[in-house]
């Protein structure tokens, strides 16, 4: 099983990613929620950024999350391994715990100033679509993976659970960043469990109190549980301004500027306030 899980990781993740990316891109073209998405100006740079991120991960970290799980299992590290929890229980517990950890990490990246400088690269996209899910600074990606690996090892999550979670997280990010229209009734039903595009779009609002809400990536429960849920944007989905009040010049979305953006300061009043919900 360990060898099989590791061997399947690359093909499964790549296949799901490419399939969902293509499906979301077609869906956006067919029934876009908003008409302000300029693909030619943004897509090449957002897509190039994930290539840089992938290279950075492999250069900086000797192993990734699934490999960390296999190492923990081999040495008996982590709570679930110490308690010898059966796979049928360890799998859902691990997926839930990892999703909660990602929620907590997301909150931290908004409220710790040095981490916000990295994370704001994601938020300075002035339109939100499937490629926004790829727009993360490579240093944030490396830190995020290191945090995830630490949680995996401390928890003793099974490798197959980590693979399931990675696929779920990537798929959820592509879906909830989609510039797509869902019927209102379907959206209300889905967001009881998962983060929908309309729910996550609020998080990309130019208003700081909305930016500092709806942190969930896959499951919507954590925002409701911890009081960070905002149902709808104050300005409405079609009229709301996306992005931040800073870094809005046309050239700010270029790959080279995205990579050096964390070195630039921003006006304090434009920084999401650390005490907002």
From TrEMBL:
The keyword NADP does not apply. One of its GO terms (biological process) is lipid biosynthetic process. Its main location: membrane. InterPro entries: Fatty_acid_hydroxylase, Sterol_Desaturase_Related. Keywords: Membrane, Transmembrane, Transmembrane helix. One of its GO terms (molecular function) is oxidoreductase activity. Residues 93-228 form the Fatty acid hydroxylase domain. It holds the Pfam family FA_hydroxylase. The chain crosses the membrane at residues 12-31, 43-65, 85-104, 150-175. It is found in: Membrane. GO terms for cellular component: membrane. Coiled coil: none annotated. This is Sterol desaturase family protein. It comes from Roseospira marina.
